[in-house]
Task: inverse folding
C-alpha cells in the first residue's frame, strides 16, 4: 500500500540552527501539506502546497519556515533558525484532491530544539 | 472561524465495552467535511472516515459507527466491543470547504485506553 514517508524520524538540534524535514508523498498525489503537533496538543495546519507553490499558510508559518519540492518526489520543510517553541512532531500529508480531506499522513518527524 | 471541540480528554474502558467519542464543531460554511483520524502509539495519523455536510446518514463499518447530527453540530464516533488495539488518540477534524485543497482543523483529541 502506498504511503507517505518522512525523514528523519527524530532530530535534536540547538536553538538557532537550521533544520530540514523531508517527506516523500504518495507518487500520484497533487496536494501536499505540513501539519505540526506540539506534545500533548492538537494537530495544527502549517501550510499547503499545490502546483509548485504555497496555496495557503497559517499564522504559525512565518518567515522562518519555507517549503520546497525540489524534485518530482521530495517535499521539504525548512526552519531557518529554530526556536525552543518549534519543538513538536511535524507531519507531512498528501492528497489526491479527489476526496476532500482524505489526507494520507506520514509517521511524523519529531523535532527537539534545545 | 472553524472550531472543533472534543470535550472528553481521556477515556478508559475494559475490553469488549462499547465506547462513544464525542465531537462538536463550529463553522460558517454551508458545505464542509468532517473526519475522524486515529493516532496509535506509533504516532502516525490514520484516516478513519469522512462525512460531508449534506450526508447525515449514519454509517456502520464493522465495529465502528458514526452519528452525524447537523442540528446539534455533532459528529460522534462509537466503537462497539472495544479491543486493546483500539487504544489510541482519536481526533475529530473539520475541513474549511469543498475544494480539493482544504485544510483541516483538528480537535484536541481523545485518548482512549482499552484495558484487557
Result:
Amino acid at each position: 500500500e502506498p504511503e507517505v514517508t518522512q525523514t528523519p524520524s527524530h532530530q535534536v538540534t540547538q536553538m538557532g540552527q537550521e533544520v530540514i524535514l523531508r517527506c516523500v508523498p504518495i507518487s500520484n498525489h497533487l496536494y501536499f501539506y505540513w501539519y505540526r503537533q506540539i506534545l500533548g496538543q492538537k494537530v495544527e495546519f502549517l501550510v499547503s502546497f499545490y502546483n509548485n507553490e504555497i496555496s495557503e499558510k497559517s499564522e504559525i508559518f512565518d518567515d522562518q519556515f519555507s517549503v520546497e519540492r525540489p524534485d518530482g518526489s521530495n517535499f521539504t520543510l525548512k526552519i531557518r533558525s529554530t526556536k525552543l517553541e518549534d519543538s513538536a512532531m511535524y507531519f507531512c500529508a498528501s492528497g489526491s484532491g479527489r476526496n476532500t480531506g482524505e489526507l494520507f499522513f506520514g509517521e511524523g518527524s519529531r523535532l527537539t530544539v534545545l | 472561524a472553524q472550531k472543533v471541540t472534543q470535550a472528553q480528554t481521556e477515556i478508559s474502558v475494559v475490553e469488549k465495552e462499547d465506547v462513544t467519542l464525542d465531537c462538536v464543531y463550529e463553522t460558517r460554511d454551508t458545505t464542509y467535511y468532517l473526519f475522524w483520524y486515529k493516532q496509535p502509539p506509533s504516532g502516525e495519523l490514520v484516516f478513519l472516515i469522512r462525512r460531508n455536510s449534506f450526508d447525515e446518514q449514519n454509517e456502520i463499518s464493522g465495529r465502528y459507527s458514526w452519528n452525524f447530527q447537523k442540528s446539534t453540530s455533532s459528529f460522534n464516533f462509537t466503537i462497539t466491543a472495544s479491543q486493546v488495539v483500539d487504544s489510541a488518540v482519536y481526533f475529530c477534524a473539520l475541513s474549511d470547504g469543498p475544494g480539493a485543497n482544504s485544510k483541516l482543523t483538528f480537535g484536541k483529541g481523545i485518548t482512549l485506553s482499552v484495558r484487557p
